[in-house]
Amino acid sequence: MNQALWYKDAVFYQVYPRAFQDSNGDGHGDLRGLTRRLDYLRDLGVDCVWLMPIYVSPLKDDGYDIADFYNIAETFGTLEDFKALIEAAHQRDIRIIMDLVLNHTSDQHPWFRASRAERDSPYRDYYVWSDTDQKYKDARIIFVDTEPSNWTWDETAGQYYWHRFYASQPDLNYDNPRVQEEMLQVAGFWLELGIDGFRADAVPYLFEREGTSCENLPETHAYLRKLRAFIEDHYPGRILLCEANQWPEDVRPYFGDGDEFHMGFHFPIMPRIYMAIKKGRAQDMVEILRRTPPIPENCQWCIFLRNHDELTLEMVTEQERQWMWENYAPEPRMRLNLGIRRRLAPLLDNDERKIRLAYSLLFTLPGSPILYYGDEIGMGDNIWLDDRNGVRTPMQWEAGAGAGFSEAPIHSLYAPVIDSDLYSPARVNVKSQRADPHSMWNVIRRMIAIRKQHRVFGWGKFEWIDVRNDAVAAFQRTHENETVLAIHNLSGAGQKISSVKKPVSSLTDLLTQKQFVPTNGNLEIELMPYQYLWLK
Ligand code: NOJ
Questions:
Q1: Most buried of 171, 177, 261, 334 (most Cβ within 10 A)?
Q2: Residue 165, Cβ neighbours under 10 Å: how many?
Q3: What is the distance in A from the centroid of ligand 1 to the CA of 400?
Q4: Residue 166: CB within 6 Å of ligand 1?
Q5: 352-364 vs 440-452: helix axis angle to the nearest 10?
Q6: Residue of the CA atom closest to atom 2 of ligand 1
Q7: What's the pTM value of the predicted model, to 2 decimals?
């Protein structure tokens, strides 16, 4: 289990625990349910699960509002269940990382209660208070649909408090060394229980400084390096995955000299994959990857197609955002904040060719891929649910009212199962896809299995290849003595490509074993609509 750079080759899978599997029939997913489904994840080829928040929480932001860092919300189970989950996962060679929410707590956290209640409480200074709401004007608002300001007046405290997210999530004050210390302790607690690392939530916002955007500040990086050093000293091999929704050049510093984060999400490539598939043109992906600085050898990007939030359009231009909304979120209900609250399959018109193509990009572009639960079977969404809940509906394990997710009566499920014609459990479920060798689930499983046989995908150098056709994304991955040329026809029309570089010999598609033989030193290939090849 312990090769140090395991995350460079790993396939990740994001679990929203409320949705995954209910074990006690109360209509809410829980840790025991997830434990029961570990074999499923192993069969799919998952190496590491990102477990979303399970801490005690009033759930105003689905667990990202934490009221007790040292305990598990009753609905998910107990610390004993947590330990059992980790143990069962490790037995299957699956690691688990969990959310570490550093930036804020719930307003129900005892620290905040004490902080607001008394000016001379030792906890007053755990949060950011002010007599005026005019400070830090250059910090943007993130939840633009609901929050008019990053300051909220607190009647009890007689001051404003600072929050980058919902008003029910006051920001911690990292200028206070005790806060810094507290959060290291929180990390230590879960590492001690065996967690393999953290997806660190919302890290750009830890410190505030006048006259700045209050994002990515040097003080923030200094603290994060402290956190890394703490982990390195006491729990080597465990990882930190950075959630910084920023441009590549601004994420780069989060890797430090290989002494800050092990991994960072590559946010900007994600919407550009959707642009590429809609426009039938590689250009937007090409540009953003050209703009992505190299990262230290011991670091890794984490790339994704969707997650539990709205498909964020923060890392695009205003014009590109409008284009994405027009093309991918034509109805107002599909839009949320600066993003789109839809799932992968509906976004790609439930067209399996496009969905497979998107996965092929996910598995061959530089970085470790992460899948969002349910997207491996092409689950649908429900835009009529509020906030981001429409992409957090029960996992569809099999046909039937509770979708194999829960035995509770339908009205007591935490959220309705998707019931549209195209995406209901009768049409979309794990059981039938596992039984069908040609299903999307099996296609993805095979892609994962093949990816794992070739270190080039996790480790390889990346280079765009000119194939004299803009509709085709072609790139080469090279590691030690292996080279793979990944070719993606982004368009709905057949395409021809020919090689500019002289191919040395015939190439074999790793996915189908089909051979491609160059004639007169030139490789010519005809691609079907949305076809992809992994040529070795
Ligand atoms: C990012 C998380 O992905 C999102 O779900 C959450 O609302 C915010 N951080 C605040 O914690």
A1: 261
A2: 24
A3: 32
A4: no
A5: 20
A6: 201
A7: 0.98
